[in-house]
User: What shape does this take?
Amino acid sequence: MSPPKGDGDMKQLEISATFLSGMYHGKEWPPAPMRLFQAIIAGHNQGRARRIEDAKFGAAMRWLECLPPPSIFACEAISGSTCRRSVPNNDDDIAMSRAVQSRPETPYEKAKRYAFKATSPWFLEGDHMVHYSWEVPEGNESFAEDVKKYASEITILGWGVDMVSSSGAVLASATPRSTVRFTPHSNAGKGRVLRVPCEGSYQSAEVRYSDFISSGWREGGLTFTKTPLKYFQVGYIRDDEQPDQHYQCYHLLEVDGRSSYVRDPREGIAVAAMLRHAINGLLQREGYDDQTIQELLGHGQKGRQVSCLPLPSVGHRHADGMIRRVMLKSSDSSVLSRLNWGLEGCELKYREQPVAMLSPIHASDGVVDRFTSESMVWETVTPVILPGYDQIKKRKRRTEKLIGRSLLQSGITPSQVASIWYRKLPWNHHGYPAGAYQTARYMRYPQYHVKVEFRKAVRGPLALGAGRYFGLGLMVGLEEKRLTVAA
Assistant: This one.
């Protein structure tokens, strides 16, 4: 059931929930739209209402599941420590079957009915509220009014202890809010991935409940089926996060594939050039026109460039800083998907001779995680090339202003930054001073190693300055908030 589309400004369906305890025990924050969808169904079917067939409710939920993912406005939340507790694992039906057979449980069998369950609650700040906002297509106001009514029946959002006070509203326009906004984004690898309802979600929930009712111990044995819920997964990002962080990483292998191809980090721009040459050849073979190729390789329209980032080996005190991996980053996920398909096993050439080949990194990688994880403090592993001269004749040095411009070019606003440090020497023991790295002829501006502390944690990858598309100005997140700066 697809809602019709209208033109002009749309009304907003908004569902709000206030957590009464100031805590939330679900795995994700904010609570996923699919979790809210299930909470509406559970709230409407409490007690005697479950026995009453409600076609109007079913129609409203089928309409809601077909809407695009909502925007979410939520208070700040702090993740608490993980606690493990021993709880019954819902096997009392097995105990009942033994009681019917006049065979009491042994202490060992009773112990088996308990399991350890890990909990890591979120401690909510501010007003303890979360709001979900959908655009209501023209002509669908009656469905929105129905959902608004059913939203007030929600009592639990999350675990059974997560009691809420809820309400719904149909608004003429979006309401400005001071809380954090989370918007759906095409990149599921960025920020947080949340479950959202899709066409068929309501029916799958009904089938799942029916299967649950008919499961358990029956004469002749134990039966239990758990029909899966139907939903999509969508990436959500905060307003203060960078949206264009689609990336794919590769191991560099020798041509025979038996060992890693290793390159000095000062020669990173040469590795980036080899990778760009391979991408250019692939795009030509795929039939892309010259203008598109120029845009993707950074010579045309800004914003579509594919960044070729050689990754120095970092992450522990014995890391040598050598290049064994590369990363492709782009704002266009479809381009990266196409490139990934064609670059697997692709050879990289240096002076027309094959010297390495690419092997995609599919599993978690400790080095990649340092460049892509979330952190409040980031420092460069390769120097930032400023977007201009920081000393013009006798004018006052304006290095910090140029570093701020570099941050802005990478999508980071001044309000996100708490402190900036810079110097010529590297921040880590396996780095080299600014000026020691190979650069292109047009990268003639001053270079510095930079450290940035953000007001809130941001997620990588981050690269700053004129060489950010080639691996210069590449930053790594610190695992802990180390702010010691040498003179």
